[in-house]
Design a protein that fits this description.
Blueprint: E1 10-14, E2 19-22, E3 40-43, E4 49-52, E5 57-61, E6 68-71, E7 74-80, E8 83-88, E9 105-108, E10 113-118, E11 121-124
């Protein structure tokens, strides 16, 4: 993963007891075009996993009591239909390194998120 120093364009702190799982980076025997990077998930205390757009992550840490993930190229749009809504506004990797199936929108259940910060300022809750 690529890291940058804080404040992050968008930082999501998940609920206490959450952690991160990142798939190992495997080089396949046959070339695979536009498969995207290995997956990243937030794992909640009960074992539920929330997929994240790995290609937009610029910071990830779960050494404290919860997972914290910083995203670049994404905007926080607020609460839409009861979910926290985030939009991909700019890809951080070249098109040929990204899956064509990548989502443009990320939604999160507010019950799984402790806080959202934009440019170092708390914007939710």
């Amino acid at each position: 993963m690529k890291f940058q120093t804080a404040p992050f364009p968008l930082l999501v702190e998940f609920v206490e007891g959450s952690g991160l799982y990142v798939e190992p980076d495997v080089t396949p025997a046959l070339p695979i075009v536009q498969n995207g990077p290995p997956g990243t998930w937030v794992v909640l205390a009960g074992g539920d996993r929330i997929p994240l757009p790995t290609d937009q992550i610029v910071f990830a840490d779960d050494t404290g009591s919860s997972a914290r993930v910083g995203f670049g190229g994404m905007s926080f749009e607020g609460v839409k239909d009861g979910l926290l809504a985030f939009w991909r506004v700019r890809d951080l990797r070249n098109e040929d390194l990204l899956s064509p199936e990548r989502a443009r929108k990320m939604t999160l259940d507010p019950a799984t998120v402790a806080a959202v910060e934009v440019e170092g300022k708390r914007v939710w809750p």
